[in-house]
Amino acid sequence: MGNRICSLFDIQYPVIQAGMVWNSGWRLASAASNSGVLGLIGAGSMYPNVLREHIQKCKKATSKPFGVNVPMLYPDIQEIMDIIVGEGVKIVFTSAGNPKIWTKWLKEKGITVVHVVSSVKFALKAQEAGVDAVVAEGFEAGGHNGREETTTFTLIPMVKQEIEIPLIAAGGIANGKGMLAAMVLGADGVQIGSRFVASEESSAHQKFKQLVVDAKEGDTQLTLKELAPVRLLKNKFYQEIMELYKSSPTSEELKALLGRGRAKKGMFEGDLEDGELEIGQIAGLINDIQPINAIVDEIINEFQQERKSILNGEKFRF
What is the pLDDT of residue 3? Predict the structure, then answer.
């Protein structure tokens, strides 16, 4: 399945396992890479020394390419970047910040750089900054999201017609059909997060994984736009946010409610009441917890079957 994403990362399938906070440690990243896709370690929830440990363990667990996702709004960014370079990581996905700040510096170190965007405007800025590819992430995605609420199926063709570098679609993709649809719309590959949360190798708490599997349509909501938009499963903490919004809160009041360690409490420690539970809308289509290699096989097999049926005209006989 050779294409621009496979060539850029030297991987078998044009699929990226998203670098999600509290979900994407070395076990998930190495298992994803060993399955033929690009695994990413999520640095956003790691202190620098913890990130170094995960990179070292990942290198021992796989001989395949893997990368690190770095949300640029987090502290210790210089130390994190120095560790990435020092440990010989060759692929970095940046997000939540200006790509101009780090792209040139990373590329001078021989690192492939990809930036996550939520709009055409930011895709163009990322291309201008010199990134090797962009991830265009739609409103459906879990975790931090764009304020514009542009859906993936609207965003991908809009970005495609404006940029020349490789395009990776993200948000609302969890199976082969979604992957095929995104690529028909112009994506060169896809980034998948929520489906890989519900994997055996994910570092998420088992209670959170099960809640993802049990989620139905309408169980998530994008909120906290005044801080950093995030899609959450509706629980006690979410209801507290909604109650606070009734009084038109300030950003400081929202920050006070959010507090510290809320995402860790929910996704990593399994507090399903008071924790922040980030997941995409596609959770309604996730029905089981499987090993990464089984999930990848399922996605790719469905992709190939659906592509074959379209090429044979089976889908469009009317």
Answer: 92
Residues 6+ apart with CB under 8 A from 229: 144, 145, 146, 147, 222, 223
Residue 87's nearest CA partner among 127, 46, 31 is 46
Cα 90–Cα 293–Cα 61 angle in degrees, nearest 5: 45
Question: How far does the chain reach from its first CA to its final CA, in angstroms?
Answer: 30
Distance CA 72, CA 191 (A): 19
φ, ψ dihedrals at 71, nearest 5°: -70, 120
Write the pLDDT tens digit of every residue in 241-257: 999 999 999 999 999 99
**Among 65, 70, 58, residue whose Cα is nearest residue 28:** 58
Q: Can you tell me the distance from the alpha carbon of 141 to that of 315, in angstroms, rounded to the nearest whole number?
A: 28
For residues 136-164, give the mean pLDDT: 91
pTM of the shown model: 0.95
Segments making up each domain of the chain, as ranges: 4-203+285-301, 206-282
Q: Name residues whose C-beta falls within 8 Å of residue 122's C-beta, 6 or more positions apart in sequence.
A: none
Superfamily of the domain at 4-203+285-301: Aldolase class I (3.20.20.70)
Residue type, 93: F
Identify whether the C-beta of residue 152 lies closer than 8 Å to the C-beta of residue 165.
Answer: no
Say which amino acid occupies 256. A
